[in-house]
What does this fold into?
Amino acid sequence: MRAEDLRGLELLGEDPKHGFPLFGNARLMIMGMVPLARLHQDLVRRLGEEGAAKMCLRYGYEAGLGMATNLAGLYQWDDDLEWLKAGSALRHGTGLAREELSHLEFEPAARHLLIKGRWLLSMEAEIWRQTFGTAAHPICHILTGMTSGYASAVWGSEVLVREISCAAQGHDHCVFEGRPVQEWGMQPQEMRDFLALDTVEEEVRRLKNALAKARSEALAQSAELERLRRRQTVPSESEGVIHRSETMARVLELARKVAPSSTTVLIHGETGTGKEVLARYLHHHSGRAAHPFLAINCAALPPNLLESELFGHVKGAFTGADRDKKGLFVEAGQGSLFLDEVGELPLELQAKLLRALQEREVRPVGGSRDQPVKARIIAASNRNLKKMARQGQFREDLYFRLAVIPMEIPPLRERRQDILPLARFFLARYCPQSPGFAPEAVRLMQAHAWPGNVRELENAMEYAGVLAGQERIGPEHLPQAVTGGPEDPLAALASDFPSQEELVRRYTGQVLRHTGGNKAQAARILGIGSNTLWRRLRGGGEEDEK
Ligand SMILES: [Zn+2]
It folds into this structure.
């Protein structure tokens, strides 16, 4: 989970037992601005400005610590940096201010941290101005305390955030800066004394222990994370392919590189991974965008219809051909033609397709004249065409023609970072009035294997949107498959429609796992001889003794 995927307001819930509002898992008290202003006024009058400031700072610090731990438990953050950045969205969610980070240096290895940013529409500054007029120095103590506490929890030791200038002084907005206390020239104990935080020291220790565990997990992935940090994620929504993962970013990078050429592209990916979306992306970036993008699913039509659909026919070519018809190869003009499930193309049409690619010409059914092909061909399959070619189920020469540039779309379970952005995208499409997801629903969605990939996710969002209406999406609104209802073992083995041989191989593996590797027992369950089992495991043929 990344910070940009957090919506502060989604954390607002209702305690099912007592009906109190919740912020994450913690009970929430809602207090309006007017009584808060009165309380603040009293504090300043009774304790003096400095005393009141310390109290606010301390209150904010504890609230910030609590929020950070709350948030660490609610979501699985990609890394500490994302967890840290999520604090900004959270403070916005509290209604205290809108926070914008302008500068962030996060280098745990070098023990270096620098946070710079601004607070817009600070409630504290507003209250101050209404009560006391223009301030002589910065006064957003709850905010600085809260930001300090949150950052300290993430950083694992004291971080102090200071307000450099404040809207209460007559500025447009407040400006703040945060560093580890040592970098301010203070000792951690000084800060604790300053905040009178000794009473929460225990709490800090407890937090640190919890954090050490999360931290070591994060460190294990640090190489990958460093790469992620360096890469600025491009705002992908506008380009039509929703993604957050590095794997998908690499696929799209390759797509942008190969898009301008006319070379044939072969896209491989499990069912539902979005092969047509990638094909459209290629088309869009190809310089052919002004020309048509035509798509056809080769598995959806019987061979004779498919032939005339692809290559066209002349009047009288067959019964019902009462006029000439242009095929898709010609109709696509200088655009792109997308052949989905190309592995299902019958052998005789494979020959015609090969000719179209080699000679750049097609001949309509019943016709005697060739027509030129100018379109770029993008093919896709969820089957392993290379293997099919080896086994004689697909023309090898055609395979090599198609696979000049092979591209692979990874299944959703291998790019979990994309799940939430995609879920939000589909939810907005099917249920624009939805207030979003409860944290528990997010956790379930991120844990699910999504055997049906993006299409399954899309269907799940449509389903959840219908069930939840204007409510927040909770676990009860998600399809049973996602919430971990009884799993269909066949679906787990065959969700990507493998070949029969592949299915048998997977099932054999499943049975072997079930028997704990006992081959004799596995062979008994499978009803085959142990020699056959042995051959299967070695990847050999299937002629067996029955
Ligand atoms: Zn301020």
Remarks:
- The first strand starts at residue 12 and ends at 14.
- The chain has four domains: 3-226, 237-409, 412-490, 498-538.
- Residues 264 and 402 are 6 Å apart (CA to CA).
- The mean pLDDT is 84.
